[in-house]
Design goal:
Blueprint (H helix, E strand, L loop, with lengths): L2 H16 L6 H14 L3 E8 L4 E9 L2 E3 L3 E3 L4 H7 L3 E3 L3 H4 L4 H6 L3 E8 L5 E9 L6 H10 L1 H57 L9 H31 L7 E5 H11 L1 H6 L3 E5 L4 E6 H18 L5 E8 L4 E8 L32 H12 L4 E4 L6 E11 L2 H7 L1
Parallel strand pairs: 9-11
Antiparallel strand pairs: 1-2, 1-7, 2-3, 2-4, 5-6, 6-7, 8-10, 10-14, 11-12, 12-14, 13-14
Length: about 425
C-alpha cells in the first residue's frame, strides 16, 4: 500500500471522527486523533503571539490526556522554522539539533513534526505540532496528515483570537466608561456644596434674614441668582443620578404616597417659570389616589418633564397633568401639552440634542439631552414605563405607569 493510500484511509477515518465536530471541539478532537494515529506523546495546536515571539498552546494533548496549556518561546526551536519557512519533520535527534529548546529536553522529545496555520492575510497565525519520545513509525504521513486539517484549524484559531481581542477591547471600553461615570459622579458631589451655599445665601438675602436692606432691583438680581442656582442644582442632581444608574449604584426606595401632594410640590417648584412665560397648567389628580414609586425619583422625573415642556412652549400655551386609572391597581400619570415636541434621533447619545428642528421653533438645549436620559433611566430602575405619543396636530403626551390605590382620609394621613 502506498503512502497516499494509507493517508487516504487515515483521512477518512479521522474525517468520520471529527469532520462534524462543532467549533472548538474540532480542535480538541484533532489533536487527540493526530496523537493517537501517529502514536505521539505530545500534540498541540498553538496560537502565534508576535509580541512575545512565542506560541501559546490552545489545546495540548499529552500522554493520553489533555494537559494545561503553556507558553512555548520560539527562539532556538523547530517551531520557529515551521512558522518562518514551512512544515517539517525531524525523524530523530530533535534535542540534539535544537539544544536551546528547553521544552524538547523536558519532554524528552526525539521526533518532531509541525505544520503552520495560515490566516486569511497569508501570514502564519499558529501551528500544529506533534512530538514523540521515540521515532515516528510513519514519518512520511505526519505532515500531510496535519496539513489536511490546517485550513479549518486556522479559521478557528483566527476566530478565537478575534473574539479574545474583542473581549479585551470591550473590557477596556467598559473600564473607561466606568471611570468617566465615576468622574461625573464625583464632580456632581463637589458642585452641590457651592450651589447649596449660593441658594442658601440668596434665600437669606431675599428674606431679609441677614440684616441687609436691599432695593427692588437688587432683590430681582438676587432672585435671578437663586433661580439659576436652583436650575443648575437640578441639572447636577440629574447628572449624579444618571451616573449612579450607569454604575448600577442608584438606590431605589419605593413607598406609597399621595400623588396630588407631589404634583402640587412640582408645580410650585416651576411656578415662576410658568408665570414668566404666561403658561396655563391644569391639574386633575384625585385626592384619594396614592401611588407607589421612589418619591424623590418621581419628583425629579416630573420636574424634568414639566421643565422641558415649559422651555419649549410658546406663550399662552396650556398643559395638563392628570392621573388616569387603567386597572384597579395600575394607572398613568399624564402630562399633555398643546404642541408637538420633536424626539431626539433614534440611537443618539443622551447628551446629543437637536437645537433647531426643521420647520419648528427654536428648542433650548435643555429640552432634550441629560434630562430625557435621566427620566428614562429613573423609570427603568423603578421598573415602570415611560410612553411618548406625538399625534400629528394634537400635541404631545408623556405617560408614566404607576401602581396606585384609592385611600380615604384616615388612610391618606397614614400613607403621607
Amino acid at each position: 500500500m502506498t503512502s497516499l493510500d494509507t493517508l487516504s484511509e487515515i483521512y477518512q477515518m479521522i474525517a468520520d471522527r471529527i469532520a462534524r465536530s462543532p467549533g472548538n471541539q474540532f480542535l480538541a478532537d484533532l489533536v487527540e486523533v493526530i496523537s493517537n494515529t501517529l502514536g505521539s506523546d505530545v500534540t498541540f495546536v498553538g496560537l502565534y503571539d508576535d509580541t512575545k515571539s512565542a506560541i501559546e498552546t490552545q489545546y495540548l494533548f499529552q500522554d493520553g490526556v489533555f494537559a494545561e496549556n503553556f507558553i512555548y518561546p520560539l527562539a532556538g526551536t523547530p517551531c520557529d522554522g515551521v512558522l518562518c519557512e514551512d512544515a517539517c519533520v525531524i525523524e530523530r535527534d530533535a534535542m540534539t539539533l535544537f539544544p536551546e529548546d528547553k521544552a524538547l529536553a523536558e519532554m524528552g522529545v526525539v521526533a518532531y513534526a509541525g505544520a503552520p496555520l495560515i490566516g486569511n492575510q497569508g501570514l502564519p497565525i499558529g501551528i500544529i505540532v506533534t512530538m514523540k519520545r521515540s521515532e515516528f513509525e510513519r514519518p512520511d504521513i505526519a505532515v500531510p496528515l496535519m496539513q489536511l486539517f490546517a485550513s479549518r484549524a486556522a479559521v478557528l484559531i483566527e476566530r478565537n483570537k478575534l473574539i479574545s481581542d474583542l473581549e479585551v477591547a470591550r473590557a477596556k471600553a467598559e473600564a473607561a466608561d466606568r471611570a468617566k461615570t465615576r468622574f461625573l459622579a464625583m464632580m456632581s458631589h463637589e458642585l452641590r456644596t457651592p450651589l447649596n451655599a449660593i441658594i442658601g445665601y440668596s434665600d437669606a438675602l431675599r428674606g431679609g434674614h441677614l440684616g441687609v436692606s436691599l432695593d427692588h432691583s437688587v432683590q430681582e438680581y438676587i432672585g435671578e441668582i437663586n433661580q439659576a442656582g436652583r436650575h443648575l442644582l437640578l441639572l447636577v442632581d440629574d447628572l449624579l443620578d444618571y451616573s449612579r444608574v450607569e454604575l448600577d449604584e442608584l438606590e431605589v426606595d419605593p413607598t406609597w404616597f399621595p400623588l396630588d401632594d407631589l404634583v402640587a410640590d412640582v408645580v410650585n417648584h416651576t411656578a415662576a417659570d410658568l408665570v414668566e412665560k404666561d403658561l396655563v397648567l391644569d391639574r386633575a389628580i384625585p385626592e384619594a389616589a396614592s401611588v407607589r414609586f421612589d418619591r424623590r425619583h418621581l419628583r425629579q422625573i416630573l420636574i424634568n418633564l414639566l421643565s422641558q415642556a415649559i422651555q419649549h412652549a410658546p406663550a399662552d400655551s396650556s398643559m395638563t397633568i392628570s392621573f388616569q386609572p387603567e386597572t384597579e391597581a395600575k394607572g398613568w400619570l399624564v402630562l399633555r401639552a398643546s404642541w408637538t415636541v420633536p424626539e431626539p434621533p433614534t440611537g443618539s447619545s443622551p447628551f446629543e440634542v437637536e437645537t433647531r428642528p426643521t420647520g419648528g421653533p427654536y428648542v433650548r438645549p435643555e429640552a432634550f439631552g441629560l434630562g430625557s436620559a435621566v427620566i428614562r433611566a429613573l423609570c427603568k430602575v423603578n421598573q415602570e414605563r415611560l410612553e411618548v405619543e406625538t399625534p400629528p396636530g394634537e400635541g404631545t403626551v408623556r405617560r408614566i405607569s404607576l401602581p396606585f390605590r384609592v385611600v380615604d382620609g384616615g388612610d391618606r394621613q397614614a400613607v403621607a
